[in-house]
# Entry
Amino acid sequence: MTTTEGHATTPALFRATIETPLGSLTALATDRGLCAIQFPDDAIPANARPSPRHGHAALACRQLGEYFARRRTSFDVPFDWTLTPFRRRVLAQVVRIPFGATRSYGEIAQAIGQPGAARAVGGANHANPIPLIVPCHRVIGATGQLVGYGGGLASKRWLLAFEGAIRVTA
# Structure
């Protein structure tokens, strides 16, 4: 962060958008990395400048396009996010869930060394600013139920079926 006359300034924010089976997704990024993925109903910050071909927002959209085309199962876009240490540990563990697999909130809590923190893991997952790329859709309830997802449970179900993690019945 830079300062001007003693006032902190925020880094420039850029956006790129991609059409997906889930609707229009918008990637928000700074020069340092990806900040957020916005679902169709999410508000886009007014200060986010279009960057359809260059930068981290455009890279995120290219990689999401490859994911939806079944040519990519993981992402390597750098992040620029502000997280508490706990949320950082949780989301770092969520990133490790492989394509086509799921983990429960309790399994994530266990993996970060806090076995009693399943609810807090749920809160951290809910606050994930970079869904899909940080695949919080792969985190499910202890009994296998699909619970909570910023893009809606229908999107979560679709993503898990797309990845082969669940079977969809008619």
